Amino acid sequence: MERHEGSNENRLSDRTGPSGPAVHESMDTSPQHTRASVLSGVIVIAAIVLGFLLVFIVQNSASATVHFLGMQGSMPLGVAMVFAALAGALLVALVGIARSLQPRSAVRKRTSRQH
């Protein structure tokens, strides 16, 4: 006799053994992901993105003059655009870090006032 607990049918089923006590049997058939398998997947994706990035830089190798904070220089257009994208990603990351730290400091202030 099988019985499913709650709405999670694929996790655990109870079976009554021939001698009486219930025997728990795992019904989860999803593949188990190890850290090594996840890491290898991330490395493959990063290598593909790096390949596209290198193709982009090589195809946009025309020289461009860049002006920044009173400085002036010349570099390949693809490299300049990658630097701009990295600067934008860094700015977004900094804003995200600031937003994640803000609620924590508010909670710390609130808990220090209560004690």
UniProtKB/TrEMBL annotation:
<feature type="region of interest" description="Disordered">
    <location>
        <begin position="1"/>
        <end position="32"/>
    </location>
</feature>
<keyword id="KW-0812">Transmembrane</keyword>
<dbReference type="GO" id="GO:0005886">
    <property type="term" value="C:plasma membrane"/>
</dbReference>
<keyword id="KW-1133">Transmembrane helix</keyword>
<dbReference type="InterPro" id="IPR010445">
    <property type="entry name" value="LapA_dom"/>
</dbReference>
<keyword id="KW-0472">Membrane</keyword>
<dbReference type="Pfam" id="PF06305">
    <property type="entry name" value="LapA_dom"/>
</dbReference>
<feature type="transmembrane region" description="Helical">
    <location>
        <begin position="36"/>
        <end position="58"/>
    </location>
</feature>
<keyword id="KW-1003">Cell membrane</keyword>
<protein>
    <submittedName>
        <fullName>DUF1049 domain-containing protein</fullName>
    </submittedName>
</protein>
<feature type="domain" description="Lipopolysaccharide assembly protein A">
    <location>
        <begin position="59"/>
        <end position="111"/>
    </location>
</feature>
<feature type="transmembrane region" description="Helical">
    <location>
        <begin position="78"/>
        <end position="101"/>
    </location>
</feature>
<feature type="compositionally biased region" description="Basic and acidic residues">
    <location>
        <begin position="1"/>
        <end position="14"/>
    </location>
</feature>
